[in-house]
């Protein structure tokens, strides 16, 4: 493909012209976004190609403001006529829209001014034959694990994305990123005694990906370990969350501190700003400036400068995720967390959020547990964002006398997130693998519903 910097420059010129046209048509202020993406993926099952996909897209979005009225429109048609129509429709719709006391662009002094190279694209674009070979290698390694009887397939992919944002305050910034991925899912056992498991890895840089065979072997070994699960008696016991599912607890916090939920009064933490909501020593960070992070960007989708923030500091809740509208509603200042769809106004969302590691290894974290559950899979979405009540189906392994024992399944783990957060202890094994990350987590005092 052509140089991403050249593509970004062309898109920035396009948005500058679009905004100028909107001002000329009667908009008092305006902002615009451009996004293009391209991806290629290959899936195989039992050694044969099964799911081969290639996609490319380009989208253009425009928001115009007339007084306290706003309208958002978008198009995938980049002809001059379509762009003129986009501007005319946006201004006409804004004039007819109801007033919104909180809409509007940021203050000029909030604009990001210093671009940061976050090294998000390595320029490597594997072609389909290479992706197919990688997918086959992952699946073959899974099938070679003793006890594996079938496969749900292996897959490999790569993608590229370019996002540009500009507004009438003079901001015009671009960010591009790429990713590479590999995955495998395997089935062990037969008839009614089958179990499945998987492994997946993605990185912004190809040279950081593990070997496909490593992914396949791990998927196969995980599936075999889950064979012949038992059920548990109901009762209260410690729960240890594997990092694959521990990230969900950080995700529940992110939802609870989203400014939109707080402004609506639909968050169980809505009255907890500045208060202790985790045990002392717990720290949760949102880092939009992490080098090679999946959600890294030096500006948000309102042009506001981003910065690394401790959302939880020594157990205390320090801030909400805010865009300009929710900040005005809460009489606060944007935290640079605005995200944006093509046809909708901004809304807040986290960037690279993670729970910092503790001092104990996972083995040390479990050492004093006489009986508990090590959870590797969560099922369902039984979380009430208003009350914090938590109830989810789960599977994993029994913890007996501090050691992992036989597999367990068909259980439900329950509690309340406010209590769970206060009784949460992280292990030392944090790895940055996704946009939301956590080490192994222990939560005491949860309820297990079994047979």
Automatic annotation (TrEMBL):
Superkingdom of the source species:
Bacteria
- The Metalloprotease TldD/E central domain is annotated at 129-227
Residue span(s) of domain Metalloprotease TldD/E N-terminal: 30-94
Matching entries from Pfam families are given as:
PmbA_TldD_1st, PmbA_TldD_2nd, PmbA_TldD_3rd
Q: Where is this region: Disordered?
A: 333-352
SUPFAM superfamilies in UniProt:
Putative modulator of DNA gyrase, PmbA/TldD (SSF111283)
The similarity annotation says: Belongs to the peptidase U62 family.
Protein's name in the database: TldD/PmbA family protein
Organism equals Ferrovibrio xuzhouensis
Mind giving the lineage of the organism this protein is from? Answer: Bacteria, Pseudomonadati, Pseudomonadota, Alphaproteobacteria, Rhodospirillales
